[in-house]
Amino acid sequence: MTGMTAAAALAMGSGLLVRRRYLRWGATHGEVAAALPGDELVARADLTATRAITIRASAAEVWPWLAQIGQGRGGFYSYDRLENLIGCNIHSADRIVPAWQTIAVGDCVRLHPEVAMAVALVEPGRALVLQGEAPDGTTPPPYDGTWAFVLRDGPAGTTRLLMRERYGYTRWWSAAVLEPVELLSAVMSRRMLLGIRDRAERAVKARVPA
């Protein structure tokens, strides 16, 4: 193997390792392999990302933060400034707003004033699955996609929050669009998981007498 070939192989291996890590940040092997609500909506996914975090709060205490996500609602608890650079007009809430707690199958959750996903599945206190992502108009995206949030009980009153993205490509060039974007999605998703954790844990602490 020549030096150039060896360097190329090393670079490729490193790239694959980094990709594997950002597609499964915080998730265990078991969580990555597990079937989650909404998986069946994209039966043959070409790209799947599963990320997770432990929250020191019950599922019932975490759920309200999920129920109110969306542009024009509670936001996404991520990097608002970055999202707003592309006109998302996101303002992440630091409190639970009762008016935003109703969410049902068929509702739209906006990512941007002109981009929305439909609520495909709701299991209050357990799972929220969004499907599709398209600008208002007639041109569909080059993939079928879902974004799932699943709550699982952990030890000592904790909760595991799992976030899963699944994409099925519908065009031969779909990967060229999605793969670069997925790295940015990983950064934003990690911040979102941390944002939900911090808000839920602060809310729990605020209710505990000193």
Oligomer: single chain
CATH superfamily: START domain
Total of helices: 5
Which residue ranges are poorly predicted, with pLDDT under 50 across at least 5 consecutive positions?
3-17
For the residues shown, what is the average pLDDT?
88
The number of strands is: 6
H and E string: HHEHHEEEEEH
Euclidean distance between termini CA atoms: 66 Å
The total number of structural domains is 1
Indicate the CATH topology: Alpha-D-Glucose-1,6-Bisphosphate, Chain A, domain 4
Structural class: alpha+beta
CATH class: Alpha Beta
Q: State the strand order across the main sheet.
A: 1-6-5-4-3-2
Topology at a glance:
Layout: H1 3-23, H2 29-33, E1 47-55, H3 59-67, H4 80-84, E2 108-112, E3 115-123, E4 127-135, E5 143-153, E6 159-169, H5 174-207
Helix pairs in contact: 3-5
